[in-house]
């Protein structure tokens, strides 16, 4: 088993591996192109993101700068929106569904180090994947820790530190992040009415 396979599968691995170093440098080259691009280079940025990510669906809007370790472990569905200065440490896979909104300065961290100092000092690392369902909004400066699964139709409050799984249809906030309340039919009716009034106001 290669060091890359060990890393992606969440096993202990050594990052100073020739293949991993090559992949790491590739990601740094692509993110450099992305992060230094101008507003007139939207088509090029889209191509660089497609080359960087393991999968990137349609209608993605990702504001540079974006930082990641490898890129190939990031899998995103359709309608991904990522705001400025996000960091995705993707030593293990990061799975994101459709209609994901990620605020500025959000960190998705799959990387881990051994708790025992003597093993950690040997340079061994490992990781755990992150999974995010559909229609999720993660507020700015939130951190999602390794191994966390966030359900669908979830709102994560800004500044939250998500250390445990979050179920579907809730608002969760805090450090550590906890469920504040469920998202209810009353919420749905309120926002559907507001949206109807907005679209109705645009009619000629």
Automatic annotation (TrEMBL):
<dbReference type="InterPro" id="IPR024688">
    <property type="entry name" value="Mac_dom"/>
</dbReference>
<protein>
    <recommendedName>
        <fullName>Acetyltransferase</fullName>
        <ecNumber>2.3.1.-</ecNumber>
    </recommendedName>
</protein>
<dbReference type="InterPro" id="IPR001451">
    <property type="entry name" value="Hexapep"/>
</dbReference>
<keyword id="KW-0012">Acyltransferase</keyword>
<dbReference type="Pfam" id="PF00132">
    <property type="entry name" value="Hexapep"/>
</dbReference>
<feature type="domain" description="Maltose/galactoside acetyltransferase">
    <location>
        <begin position="4"/>
        <end position="58"/>
    </location>
</feature>
<dbReference type="InterPro" id="IPR039369">
    <property type="entry name" value="LacA-like"/>
</dbReference>
<dbReference type="InterPro" id="IPR011004">
    <property type="entry name" value="Trimer_LpxA-like_sf"/>
</dbReference>
<dbReference type="Pfam" id="PF12464">
    <property type="entry name" value="Mac"/>
</dbReference>
<dbReference type="InterPro" id="IPR018357">
    <property type="entry name" value="Hexapep_transf_CS"/>
</dbReference>
<keyword id="KW-0677">Repeat</keyword>
<dbReference type="GO" id="GO:0008870">
    <property type="term" value="F:galactoside O-acetyltransferase activity"/>
</dbReference>
<comment type="similarity">
    <text>Belongs to the transferase hexapeptide repeat family.</text>
</comment>
<keyword id="KW-0808">Transferase</keyword>
